[in-house]
């Protein structure tokens, strides 16, 4: 819900890697607040469990939809420029959303709009 000051509530859900216990597989919820017109930073837990493993694909969904709204393809051997690894499938996010896989992986939405308020799910696929 939007407050009088224009603060949006976005909820992130992280799907944890399959090798964790059944209880942990359910994931973790985190509430993220952002001011309308500014930047929303939606974190995604992509920590690799094994040093020989690596992140292959990161997918973002909203409100339990079956099709991702955003994907980041990090699979090696693909002839892609770095900017082509990102695919935005929700037209409203075009030009405003980007996944940054760095030290604190997160999807950044700037400027965040009232229509961006949703439950976001981040799914990470690993090589192993």
TrEMBL record:
Return the PROSITE patterns for the record. Answer: IG_LIKE
- UniProt keyword terms in alphabetical order: Signal
Signal peptide stretch: 1-23
Tell me which residues make up the Ig-like domain. Answer: 17-128
SUPFAM superfamilies the UniProt entry points to: Immunoglobulin
The protein's name in its UniProt record: Ig-like domain-containing protein
């Amino acid at each position: 819900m939007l407050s009088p000051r224009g603060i949006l509530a976005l909820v992130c859900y992280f799907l944890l890697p399959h090798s964790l216990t059944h209880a942990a597989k359910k994931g973790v919820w985190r509430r993220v607040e952002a001011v309308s017109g500014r930047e929303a930073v939606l974190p995604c837990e992509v920590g690799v469990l094994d040093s020989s493993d690596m992140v292959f694909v990161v997918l973002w969904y909203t409100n339990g939809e079956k099709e991702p709204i955003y994907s980041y393809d990090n699979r090696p051997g693909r002839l892609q420029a770095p900017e082509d690894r990102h695919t935005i499938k929700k037209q409203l996010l075009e030009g405003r959303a980007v996944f940054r896989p760095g030290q604190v992986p997160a999807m950044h939405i700037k400027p965040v709009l009232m229509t961006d308020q949703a439950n976001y799910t981040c799914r990470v696929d690993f090589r192993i």
